[in-house]
Design brief:
This protein is of the alpha/beta class. It is 23% helix and 21% strand. The protein is built from 18 helices and 27 strands. Helix 11 runs parallel beside helix 13 and helix 14 packs parallel to helix 16.
Length: 684
């Protein structure tokens, strides 16, 4: 009977908080207020959401007490019992306080307390306070990479060789390691892997002919610290000029952060490159950042997708450090992988929105296996923060910010959250032969595929060099580069292409909305399902043993297709695209390009022209013609892209003149994308 009365008092009245925390058990309180997104949570902290009526009292109480009391008696008794040391706003007050309040983000608070306190009991105690609307565990998140940082590769000499970019009529960037980046321009070099397939890339060489980036486009790298003084990143780092030119130790721009020159360390709240060195380092954030926008054409290392042309025109990288870097475990010779928290992620998204980032590059996820959007949302502070970014991000270049996530590397047949949420772009990983990478998650929640690397060092003997089939990018150690793999590495390819899309839109006088950009990205792919046939060698997720992958299980589950940067830019400018198969003559119906019945339209002077440069890139054999049924006839012998100009008469069979009524001459550009084709009838 006594236990029943205790339970009743806990559920119905706030006086229970006066009881010792040890007397409250999980069985006694099952509150709908409590949000637990993961079984892996930070000790010594809890996220609290007060009801609207109580928030002003809490603000006043925190201000009076020096951030140790809330001013709500029952809540403060909980703080005392769990050994609370601090209570503060989760979302930092700053110059955009009005819109924070409009979104209700001012109601979230972060409480710090004794590391040894029982989190379940603390959550139950907080939930019993009438003024508390939600209690959220400060969940840990993890990087989504499948390998530990590799030993950095030896960088090529400063004297750049003839790169494959130059040899394929792409911009002749002089970055000596571009040849290692098959994921950008894949010419089928068997030094990568004996089974490599030309064209299994993001087709960015073609895109660079149009744009290689714009410094007005800011990409927030929400990850481990970006090595801001890396020689291949420094010139493309976002710089907060007010802080750089201001006084040390002062919040010069009034955004709530001190000395945030290149971004913010949301873990320690201190921005100092030496901290990462003192605590050990993680290559993850720097590697991801390099894929997005390492400086191009500077005679150093490799390239970034939106890294510019060496003229200060690359996209900018904002370092939002949300993972705490720790030294490897010397006793067991393993990495103590850094972990981030919900609180750090939430603040990073607020900062990215407020400081003008258009893209949030997010190669992280929860370790738990949520399987519904409802379970993820459930009032999560991080979900509200991402929504804030999607509404208020973009700066002057995009209407709203776009979050791009990795799908995860657990070989699960569903994407992991947050990436799996329906409003975020979620990226799976493919190999250098178009097949799904052995580690990638796939299935529900997956939107699009990109190269992520696929290397099994223990088992494959036909790879030459160091992890050539993985993704090559910048690493933390000064002046160094290395290979990594994972959906973490696939994700920044899509973020980089998104930066190119915004750059091109600015170039032609457009300002896209976040939804328009999302639609363009997901509508600019090539079919990956045709490669999901047969089997390939893979491994268990821990790498302990080989296993055979039946590729049919990935069919229709890798997302809508693999991304093509050139196609994205064509769709930004409204140029239709026709995909043809390399090695055979194709007939493509122009009705989809012109509208109406192309077979009934009169074409002028043969109807089609193409520049000599584009003919060479595509390896066009013979003449390009238009048949009497309105089909474009073309044979491409190379994988590549080019522009054909179609000229026809709109309205009649002859042009109007002073002497006779007639139609109008119209020229329509169409992008030709040539992809591989196998002798057995399947696409390469």
């Amino acid at each position: 009977m006594k236990k029943f009365l205790i339970l009743l008092s806990v559920a119905l009245c706030a006086s229970c908080v006066k009881d010792n925390i040890e007397s409250v058990t999980v069985e006694q309180v099952q509150s709908a207020k409590i949000i637990r997104l993961s079984d892996d949570n930070m000790g010594g902290s809890m996220i609290i959401y007060f009801n609207d009526e109580a928030t002003s009292r809490v603000e006043a109480g925190v201000s009076r007490s020096g951030a140790t009391r809330s001013g709500i008696e029952d809540f403060d008794q909980v703080l005392e019992q769990i050994g609370a040391t601090k209570i503060e706003r989760l979302f930092i007050p700053g110059k955009f306080e009005d819109r924070l309040r409009a979104e209700g983000l001012h109601r979230w608070y972060l409480v710090y307390f004794d590391q040894n306190a029982d989190l379940d009991k603390a959550a139950q105690m907080f939930a019993s306070v009438a003024e508390v609307e939600k209690v959220q565990f400060d969940s840990r998140m993890t990087h989504i990479t499948n390998v530990k940082p590799s030993v950095p590769a030896v960088t090529a000499s400063a004297e750049a060789p003839q790169t494959r970019a130059a040899s394929n009529n792409y911009p002749a960037f002089n970055d000596p390691d571009l040849d290692k980046q098959w994921h950008y321009i894949n010419i089928g070099d068997t030094q990568v892997f004996s089974g490599v397939k030309a064209g299994a890339d993001i087709n960015v060489g073609e895109a660079w002919d149009i744009t290689a980036g714009d410094p007005r486009v800011i990409v927030a790298v929400i990850d481990a610290m970006v090595k801001y003084d890396h020689p291949d990143l420094a010139d493309n780092m976002w710089v907060n000029s007010a802080e750089k030119n201001g006084a040390a130790g002062v919040d010069d721009d009034g955004n709530g952060y001190v000395d945030d020159i290149y971004g913010v360390n949301f873990v320690t709240q201190i921005w100092d490159g030496s901290i990462a060195l003192q605590q050990g380092y993680s290559d993850h954030g720097t590697h991801v950042a390099g894929t997005v926008a390492a400086v191009n054409n500077n005679g150093k290392g490799g390239c970034g997708v939106a890294g510019g042309t060496g003229k200060g025109d690359g996209a900018r990288l904002m370092s939002c450090q949300v993972f705490y870097d720790r030294r490897p475990d010397p006793e067991n010779d393993v990495d103590a992988w850094p972990t981030g928290s919900t609180a750090a992620m939430s603040r990073a998204f607020q900062y990215a929105a407020d400081m003008g980032a258009a893209i949030a590059q997010c190669s992280y996820g929860y370790g738990s296996k949520m399987t519904s959007d409802q379970a993820y949302l459930k009032g999560s502070s991080e979900a509200q923060a991402v929504q804030y970014f999607m509404k208020n991000g973009g700066g002057d270049v995009l209407q709203g910010g776009i979050p791009i996530y990795a799908a995860g590397n657990e070989q699960d047949n569903y994407a992991h959250y947050p990436g799996a949420y329906r409003d975020y772009i979620c990226v799976t990983a493919m190999s250098c032969d178009y097949t799904p990478a052995y580690y990638t998650n796939f299935g529900p929640g997956s939107n699009i595929a990109a190269p992520g690397g696929d290397y099994l060092q223990k088992y494959y003997t036909d790879y030459t060099g160091l992890k050539n089939s993985d993704v090559y990018s910048t690493t933390f150690l000064d002046g160094q580069y290395g290979y990594m793999q994972g959906t973490s590495m696939a994700c920044p390819h899509v973020s980089g292409v998104a930066a190119l899309a915004i750059s091109h839109a600015l170039q032609i006088g457009k300002k896209l909305t976040m939804v328009e950009l999302r639609n363009i990205l997901l509508g600019s792919t090539h079919d990956i399902d045709r490669y999901c046939v047969g089997s390939k060698q893979g491994a268990t997720i821990d790498g302990s043993s080989l296993k055979t992958m039946q590729l049919v299980q990935y069919k229709n589950k890798m997302g809508i297709g693999y991304i093509d940067a050139f196609k994205v830019l064509m769709n930004v400018q409204g140029t239709p695209c026709l995909t043809v198969r390399a090695g055979q003559k194709e007939g493509k119906d122009l009705s989809t390009v012109i509208g109406g019945n192309a077979g009934a339209i009169t074409f002028i002077d043969g109807g089609v022209t193409m520049s000599q440069k584009d003919r060479e890139k595509l390896g066009v054999e013979g003449e390009i013609t238009i048949s009497s049924t309105g089909k474009l006839q073309i044979k491409c012998t190379k994988i590549g892209s080019g522009i054909a100009k179609i000229t026809f008469i709109a309205g009649g069979t002859s042009l109007g003149s002073d002497e006779a009524t007639g139609g109008m001459a119209v020229t329509r550009e169409v992008a030709i994308l040539s992809r591989g084709f196998a002798t057995n009838g399947g696409w390469l």
